[in-house]
Design a protein that fits this description.
With 296 residues, the chain is an alpha/beta fold. It has three domains: 10-39, no CATH class; 70-219, Rossmann fold, CATH 3.40.50.300; 221-296, Orthogonal Bundle (Helicase, Ruva Protein, domain 3), CATH 1.10.8. The protein is 48% helix and 14% strand. It has helices at 3-20, 23-37, 55-68, 84-93, 112-120, 137-140, 156-168, 194-200, 205-211, 227-243, 251-259, 265-279, 286-289, and strands spanning 46-47, 50-51, 74-77, 102-106, 121-122, 134-135, 145-149, 170-171, 180-181, 185-190, 214-217, 248-249, 283-284. It has a five-stranded parallel β-sheet with strand order 4-7-10-3-11, sandwiched between helices. Helix 1 (3-20) packs antiparallel against helix 2 (23-37), helix 3 packs parallel to helix 4 (84-93) and helix 10 (227-243) crosses helix 12. It is elongated. Bound molecules: adenosine-5'-triphosphate and magnesium ion. Residues 50-52, 78, 80-86, 191, 234, 266-267, 270 line the site of adenosine-5'-triphosphate (ATP).
């Protein structure tokens, strides 16, 4: 049903409700109209727990399946909110190491000296506050995967130490003289241009080559033709579960979402739907999306 048919039908329903005062019947009919306007075609297409069926996402899923089955280091690139962490987890969950740990470290969020102890562990007494020996991620996730998120923010001094670990397959906890053999798969992610950083001297080229055996490039949402409605329905279903009530969306509101460029990608879309669901009275209409997505 087109938006103008929908509006005409709604107008008739409003007139009827005014006469009869039957608001429950009006709401029921309105819900039916909305689901006719934006039908969900069967199950929401997703692979590896990642929603999408656009040509770019299908190509990514194919590569992801192949890379998951191997043990090579993978570098995940993509703008903010495109799902880099989801892909990193999928590589682990669908690979040979899934029975072992997946441990993530955000290299941008931790100061350089702490990062070393987080990743490689430390010996008791090695610095103020180190009251006990502590295992780092590389030892704790032995046999599994270590995900180095925001690798472009890793300080150069730490990059050298990481490279040594990758080359030698063993770590030395801070303040210890004992080397520990480790077998971890490394998956790294960034939204920075590492090749450009290598040219500028802010990222080690040898480490870049080591991490970048395979690149998984996540397309921005604006390039995933047809995926916005799929993601919208996915998030609406998720929210219905959380809020304990169904939430619909009109064709006009969906069109406004499809026209938006999504600089914050899937995360931005999820936040917009979450906020709109709070304002919506059962069904999301353009006004619930707010400016600039649906200017009044
Ligand atoms: N294709 C998708 N299907 C379902 N959920 C998705 C999809 N892509 C991303 N998400 C969800 O969007 C949010 C952002 O994803 P994620 O954290 O993996 O992005 P990111 O690329 O790591 O972002 P950042 O660069 O900001 O760290 C998460 O809540 C994630 O579950
Ligand atoms: Mg992330």
């Amino acid at each position: 049903m087109s938006d103008s048919d929908l509006r005409a039908r709604l107008g008739a329903l409003v007139d009827e409700a005014r006469k009869s005062g039957d608001l429950v019947a009006l709401e029921t009919a309105w819900r039916e109209l909305v689901s006719a306007a934006t039908p969900v075609q069967g199950a929401i297409p997703q692979r590896f727990g990642i929603v999408g069926d656009s040509a770019k996402m299908r190509a990514l899923f194919e590569l992801l399946g192949k890379v998951a089955a191997t043990d090579v280091s993978a570098l995940i690139l993509g703008e903010t909110g495109t799902g880099k962490e989801l892909v990193a987890k999928a590589l682990h969950e669908h690979g040979k190491r899934k029975s072992k740990l997946f441990l993530a470290e955000n290299c941008a969020a931790v100061p350089a000296n702490l990062l070393e102890s987080e990743l490689f562990g430390h010996a008791k007494g090695s610095f103020t506050g180190a009251h006990v020996d502590r295992q780092g991620h590389f030892v704790a996730a032995n046999g599994g995967t270590v995900f180095l998120d925001e690798i472009g923010d890793m300080p150069l001094s730490m990059q050298s130490k990481l490279l040594r670990v990758l080359q030698e397959g063993e770590v030395r906890p801070v303040g210890s003289n004992k080397m520990i053999k480790v077998d971890v798969r490394i998956v790294a992610a960034t939204n920075k241009d590492l090749a450009a950083m290598c040219k500028q001297g802010t990222f080690r080229e040898d480490l870049y080559f080591r991490l970048n055996v395979i690149t998984l490039q996540l397309p921005p949402l604006r390039e995933r033709t047809g995926d916005v409605p799929r993601l919208v329905h996915f998030f609406l279903e998720k929210l219905a579960g959380e809020m304990g009530r169904e939430i619909g969306i009109t064709g006009e509101a969906m069109a406004a979402l499809e026209a938006w460029k999504w600089p914050g990608n899937v995360r931005e879309l999820e936040n917009v739907i979450r906020r709109a669901a709070v304002f919506a009275q059962g069904t999301i209409v353009p006004a619930d999306l707010g400016a600039p997505i649906a200017p009044a």
